[in-house]
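debug: dumping io for the single-chain case to check the tokenizer round-trip. Nothing else runs in this session.
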Amino acid sequence: MNSWFRGAGLGLFVHWGHASTRGWELSWQLTGGVRHQEPAMEPVGCEEYFANAAAFNPTRFDPAVWADLAWRAGARYVVFTAKHHDGFAMFDTRLSDYSITKHTAFGRDITAEVVEAFRDRGFRIGLYFSIVDWYHPDYPRYSDATVRKPYVVGEHPRGTAEQWARYRGFMLGQLDELLTGYGQLDIVWLDGEFEYTPREWRFDEIRELIRSRQPDCLVNDRCLGHGDFATPEQQLPVVAPDRPWETCMTMNSFWGHVPSDQSWKSPGELIRTQVETVSMGGNLLLNVGPTGDGELPVQAVERLEAMASWRARMGESVDGVLPGLELWQFHGPSTRRPLPDGGERLYLHLVMRPYEQVVVRGLKVARIRSVRLLGEDHVLQWTATPHLKDVHAGSADPAGDLRVKLSGARLDEWCSVIAVELAPEEAE
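debug: decoded output
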């Protein structure tokens, strides 16, 4: 698989559609959410929801502003919702009139403008595409009479075999438009595998279409049986997946722009979540939901600016690094960076307070060159004690414990980082 994905660290997920003009959750508002799943939401009539698309006119949309902010925050790839479950295409499709270019006064290809702005800024480009389409007549189209509200996974309208064949051809046609009309794509982020069966979707054919049009493009694991990376959602995994992975997560509770949702995670929590994700070898795909006017919510901007500020001081501890120590060695997230001379730099992320000292176990203590507080360039007081068994054995490279004093140190508001530089192992 493409090596860029491992170590990318942070991506920007953008969930956007006409529902944002009403403060509705994208797609799921028309089903009243999902039974037993938070957050709860009031259902909207299916036809009312679908008709809302005509009012979408995001005149303040400026993707270059989004791209600049996300880049400064440390994101290096973007995944944009070209089409969500509601069937509204945020791109110029020839196969449906239910699109941003044909169904609205705005009339511009939003996906093309997002791709251009983010590509110009240096981002890897990903497009989200839902293989379900609750608007299409052959899916068949959702109605208040055919859909349980709240939605129950496994229960959805089904049409005839002839309808399914027509719909599947339509779905593949729209996917092909995205694969051939927007330049090089680095990720196709599929969703909607929860309706119909893998045999009916024929994921092998979907994957082969993507490979034939975009040979270097990665596909997430919702292309069942053919994914290049895992996508845990809204929480970190207890154990890191045994393949490349990212966790996709919202800044508050909803994916789209819902002004009544004030459950915003603090900047510190988001920074510490990124740190934990990277320390486990994954990427954080952090979501924003633009407003109906096309701007990022003030709360999202504040959090991305905070991440940019933290990254300006601490970025080397999360950019292009490898997982660090085992938890028995250091009780917190850590990363490491190989150095040109064969040594390495360890980054210890202090995600909890209070603390007077930090203990790191099992280091090759004779190799410790320096211990400093990142961002402040402040040298810390430390002691290193080799294990007695190595001392008694006369080891020239003993393992032992590092103790770092933090009293009086100027600690970071959100997450302090201790950098421990280790000399290379001497050749025998």
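debug: round-trip ok. Residues 161-181 form the longest helix (21 residues).
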